Amino acid sequence: MLVSNSILEWERKLKSDGGNLYKNILVCYRVIDKLLDEEGSVGNVGGLLNEHNKVFEIVEKLQRCNTYKLDAREELLIQRYGETAYLVWALYFKLDRKDIIRKNYKQWFEGEDFTGTSHFRNFEFESTVILRFIEEDIEIDIISEKDFQGYPDLLATNSFYLECKRTTRFFGILSNVLKALKQAKNVDKPTVAVLNLDYLYNEIEGVHIFMNRYHFLLICSKIAEFAMGVEKSNLFGVVLEYINEYNQSENGSNIIAIRNENLNEEITEIQLEKNWRTISNAFCGDNSLEFYVTSISCENRFNDSNKADRKAFFNSIIINEIKRILESEKEYIDKEKIDTIISLITEND
Predict the structure, then answer these.
(1) Where in the sequence is the domain holding 54, given as residue range(s)?
(2) Pair 89, 141 in one domain
(3) Cβ neighbours of 91 (radius 10 Å)
(4) Which residues 6+ apart lie within 8 Å of 329 measured at CB?
(5) Cβ distance 184 to 191 under 8 Å?
(6) Residues 108-129 pLDDT 10s
(7) What is the DSSP secondary structure assignment for residue 120, as one 8-state letter?
(8) 302, 313 contact by CB (below 8 A)
(9) How many other β-carbons are positioned within 10 Å of the β-carbon of residue 89?
(10) Cβ contacts of 334 within 8 Å, gap of 6 or more
(11) How far apart are CA 292 and CA 194, in angstroms?
């Protein structure tokens, strides 16, 4: 991914106002503190406010002892907090896009980080997607939930919609793409689902140990394929993305796109190519986004509106297909590892 102008400016800000761990944390802390001061609190103590208070405790520890060493959890907290501070600084203060931060401001104070219930991480991801389009000078509009209930989250270049999802379970990929399919029915333009997989890879115990980048994206892509195969629709694809927080040497995010061939006839090839170029520019800064075509059809094979039926389909048809694919690569992955991976992705009651 190309480095955006905002990131370069943010790095200069850290260099001039910060310079070491303690000072860099203070720069981030002041950004969030200023946001809270200007916008106020909504009464909840979770989400960003909870994280803000934890960072204050770390600041106090560093003040008392300049040789204090952060533990692994504190390091990850500071990393995520720094990313949030950058996002707030870029959108709210530098670009004056306060409307984006204010869209669902109360969600910034909901949920507990390092769990699957952090609503503020969901909205943060959506805001990050918006910032990418803005940085590449691509028109992006926020869809008002109040005025357009049931619509996708964003509209790009007045040409296609984006639905942003942050999934916390492998089964959630199926459910989230199915939700995007339903939302795509409510609009008259093509739609793409953008799924953040950070929690799946970094927080579910064992996933980052037993799955490399290839197998992780292969599994997630296959689940999304089955969801898109339910019916012909306006959902022209799914973008999957995650950051490996256990390997900071990796350059940026891991991203792949799946192109849906099970589309309504009125969507033209010219439209699709133009939309994919726009998405690639926003996410990669160029046309390097990898995507592959899916033509899976599972129409009428399960009731997508019934959770129990979805779960049964997931644990039988989808899991068996993933197992078959992994077993076909026995030269690169042993049976014991395959069994462990299958147990990690199977949806339990």
Answers:
(1) 1-109
(2) no
(3) 21
(4) none
(5) yes
(6) 777 666 555 566 778 888 999 9
(7) H
(8) yes
(9) 22
(10) none
(11) 15
